[in-house]
Amino acid sequence: MPSENEPDSLHESLVRLETSRREQLTGAITLVFGLSVGALAFCGSLLTEEMVTLGGARTFWFLAAVVCFIAATAFSFAVTFTRLADTRVTTRIVRAKRSRGPDAKAAIEGLRQESREWGDWSFRWFYWQHFSFALGAAFLLVALWLIFHAKLFPPAAVSSIPISGG
């Protein structure tokens, strides 16, 4: 048999889960933003290295990675902006609920719709941010392989000792 405190308990659980979700989302956005900027700095530092020679496929993969990291950084700004806009609308919803004026119910419904739209855009940008970063990381791995594979795996030295056949 449900207790009288069950609705409060469910509400508290929902609030706790929602708080955790927001913190995790913020952490993921911030992490990928930092990694994207760091990857751009790394790519920039590669350009100053004398042992790095670009050209042909190496240049293509390197520039594709840089473009993806720039996109991930731009998407980071977009997701942050849309989350802030969503928070502002949510604050307006709370204020409208307090006013309890004659038009409050219609205003609240309109604000809720606006909040849903901002939230949808936030997640779209979030997914694009992560996709473009992952793609950039994969492209950078290909570029680094093409640039450094000979240094990592030098060709075996050819022995001058003849091998007898029998």
How would the blueprint of this fold be written?
Layout: H1 6-47, H2 57-99, H3 104-152
Helix pairs in contact: 1-2, 1-3, 2-3
Describe the global form. elongated
CATH architectural category: Up-down Bundle
Name of the top-level CATH class: Mainly Alpha
Helicity level: over 70%
Overall pLDDT score: 87
Number of contiguous helices: 3
How far apart the termini lie comes to 89 Å
Main beta sheet:
none
What is the radius of gyration?
Answer: 27 Å
Give the number of domains: 1
**Number of DSSP-assigned strands:** 0
The CATH topology is given as Four Helix Bundle (Hemerythrin (Met), subunit A)
The parts where pLDDT drops under 50 for at least 5 residues are none
Task: Walk me through what this model shows.
With 166 residues, the protein is mostly helical. It has one domain (14-148): Up-down Bundle (Four Helix Bundle (Hemerythrin (Met), subunit A)), CATH 1.20.120. Helices cover 81% and strands 0% of the residues. The longest helix has 49 residues, at 104-152. The mean pLDDT is 87.
